[in-house]
């Protein structure tokens, strides 16, 4: 069993002069932006929407959450409700309590999420619930990793550890490494890292000699060889990374990072690039916008968009309809501040001894 509370000794980060209010605002932005991207990406790949609008230039009124937002809510709630060490067993308990006891997942969930729920219903515990599972290398764990980046308060190692705990319930290998990478990148973006720095932080948790690692290097080589010329790489990001399952992490995660880097962290530019990308666009847009918003705060998000998505629709996980993305962002930020204070005090006490 993976247990994030048994991480190796590490140096507590110094976040700098960021105020608590700024950190809370950026945490809210990261969570809300995930909901915005989930809704927009889902619409942007719809043929009827494309026939009517061509491309999306704003969040349409009919946009609503899918499994990306709602499983992110589940992950956040599992962490916030955990009264002891955050272990994969605690995550499994949250899945049983909030999902299985409520009738299970409804429409729009990813295949390994249904597979993990079935395993849990049969008494199969993590990590086997993720290892002995179908399509456990998809982006279904990465899509719900943003809360762990927030909870780490700028420490990518803690972020990756928490994400691995959560991901082990439903995923394995590339699926877990993708979640760790996204969490680590969010952790750094919240404290002002550039897209290049945030991506580098994420890549620390992706083995080079893995499908995901090779695809990430291919993406970086593509951007470098093109001089990051958007028109030169946008089609190549589709053709060169295509796979039979568009939700595979080795396809979707390099695309997320490429669009994040091409946007330069600009929220609206990232919206245009990712909402209209196609393929696994709800996850791609959700994560790209969350990375951007983590670095800018709510001020970069167009007026009215946060209010539209702050209450999940509950289309996949009915319990999520009772949650609020803004409130969860604030709760995660406060959790992070409290945990950071505890780590800081423990380090001081250790030095004094």
Could you explain how this protein is built, in words?
The protein has 353 residues and is an all-alpha fold. Helices cover 61% and strands 0% of the residues. It is built from 17 helices and no strands. The longest helix is centred in the last third of the chain and has 28 residues, at 325-352. 56% of the residues are buried. Mean pLDDT is 94; it is low at 1-13.
**Count of structural domains:** 1
Helical coverage, percent range = 55-70%
Q: Ranges with pLDDT <50 over ≥5 residues?
A: 1-13
Kindly estimate the percentage of residues that lie in beta strands according to DSSP: under 5%
- According to DSSP, the number of beta strands is 0
Query: How can the largest sheet be summarized?
Result: none
**Mean pLDDT score, rounded?**
94
Query: What is the CATH T-level topology?
Result: ADP-ribosylglycohydrolase fold
Corresponding CATH architecture: Orthogonal Bundle
Shape, per Cα inertia axes:
globular
Overall CATH class: Mainly Alpha
Structural class label = mainly alpha
Tell me the CATH superfamily.
ADP-ribosylation/Crystallin J1
Order of helices and strands: HHHHHHHHHHHHHHHHH
Oligomer: single chain
- Cα-atom radius of gyration: 19 Å
How many separate helices? 17
Distance between the termini: 32 Å
């Amino acid at each position: 069993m993976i247990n994030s509370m048994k991480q190796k000794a590490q140096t507590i980060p110094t976040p700098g002069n960021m105020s608590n209010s700024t950190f809370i605002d950026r945490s809210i932005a990261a969570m809300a932006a995930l909901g915005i991207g989930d809704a927009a990406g889902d619409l942007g790949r719809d043929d009827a929407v494309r026939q009517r609008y061509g491309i999306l230039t704003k969040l349409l009124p009919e946009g609503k959450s899918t499994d990306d937002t709602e499983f992110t809510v589940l992950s956040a709630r599992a962490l916030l409700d955990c009264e002891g060490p955050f272990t994969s067993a605690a995550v499994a308990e949250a899945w049983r309590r909030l999902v299985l006891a409520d009738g299970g997942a409804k429409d729009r969930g990813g295949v390994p999420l249904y597979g993990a729920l079935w395993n849990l219903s049969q008494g199969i515990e993590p990590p086997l619930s993720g290892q002995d599972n179908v399509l456990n290398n998809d982006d279904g764990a990465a899509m719900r990793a943003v809360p762990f980046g927030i909870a780490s308060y700028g420490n990518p190692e803690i972020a990756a550890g928490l994400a691995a705990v959560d991901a082990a319930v439903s995923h394995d290998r590339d699926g877990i490494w993708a979640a760790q990478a996204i969490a680590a990148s969010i952790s750094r973006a919240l404290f002002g890292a550039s897209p290049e720095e945030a991506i580098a932080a994420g890549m620390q948790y992706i083995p080079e000699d893995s499908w995901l690692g090779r695809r990430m290097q291919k993406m970086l080589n593509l951007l470098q060889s093109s001089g990051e010329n958007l028109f030169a790489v946008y089609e190549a990001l589709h053709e060169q990374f295509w796979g039979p399952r568009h939700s595979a992490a080795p396809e979707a995660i390099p695309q997320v990072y490429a669009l994040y880097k091409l946007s330069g962290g600009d929220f609206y530019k990232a919206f245009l690039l990712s909402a209209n990308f196609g393929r696994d666009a709800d996850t791609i847009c959700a994560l790209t916008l969350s990375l951007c918003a983590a670095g800018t705060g709510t001020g970069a998000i167009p007026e009215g968009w946060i209010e539209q998505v702050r209450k999940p629709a509950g289309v996949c996980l009915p319990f999520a309809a009772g949650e609020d993305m803004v409130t969860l962002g604030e709760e995660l930020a406060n959790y992070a501040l409290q945990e950071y204070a505890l780590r800081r005090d423990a380090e001081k006490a250790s030095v004094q001894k």
